[in-house]
């Protein structure tokens, strides 16, 4: 089914000015948005197509784009540092998730990774996201609602290191300070061949996690670092950008092997 291209009242648009400035906004009749480049009437977008141009009262051109998953994640409210898209993409790929999958996640934080997991698991899948900080969970709920994926997520106010309620899940995805403390619980929660994926900023965390995975019946244990560098593209002077997203963390991955008694 083709995606709807006409903007309706209540839709979210990415109002694009340039590479450095864009704004995630809800469209409503009579609503204006003010910037240093003048103001625009968002109601003027109703009935027009995504990608349409809109001029401010100072005759500056904006473009009303349909938000992507990346836009919802990086324009989200936050009280914590959110993961970079390069790490989220790697974790989603290693997790092996898709429509219909059941995923356990911890901790929720601002909901950036949660949003991506729910996006790929919908419409039949579900994310069970554990978080012990209520103030983080409240922010995550708002971000998930704005991204349109809250109905695919169950937010759980619980310490995942004390146990996982779900069983036979497809993946366990962790963004925790002490992921090795959750490995044994993850093994019980996962179905055979299920994936565990963990993000850690430091190599000491990785070593402890990898050791715990090997000690608890996981196989194919591997760790990766993803580094992304943008390019400055202009005829005759194309080169790597001076600033780049270097080290942000390590992604550790493994699969559950059934023990002999469970085979």
Describe the structure.
With 263 residues, the protein is of the alpha/beta class. The protein has two domains: 12-67, Roll (Vcp-like ATPase, Chain A, domain 2); 71-262, Vaccinia Virus protein VP39 (Rossmann fold). The chain contains six helices and 15 strands. Strand 1 and strand 2 form a beta hairpin.
- Counting copies of identical and different chains, the oligomeric state is single chain
Categorize the overall geometry: globular
- The CATH topology of the largest domain is what? Rossmann fold
**Helical stretch count?**
6
**N- to C-terminal distance:** 41 Å
Q: Tell me, what is the CATH class of the largest domain?
A: Alpha Beta
Largest sheet: 7 strands, mixed
Query: What letter string, H or E per element, gives the SSE order?
Result: EEEEEEHHEHEHEEHEHEEEE
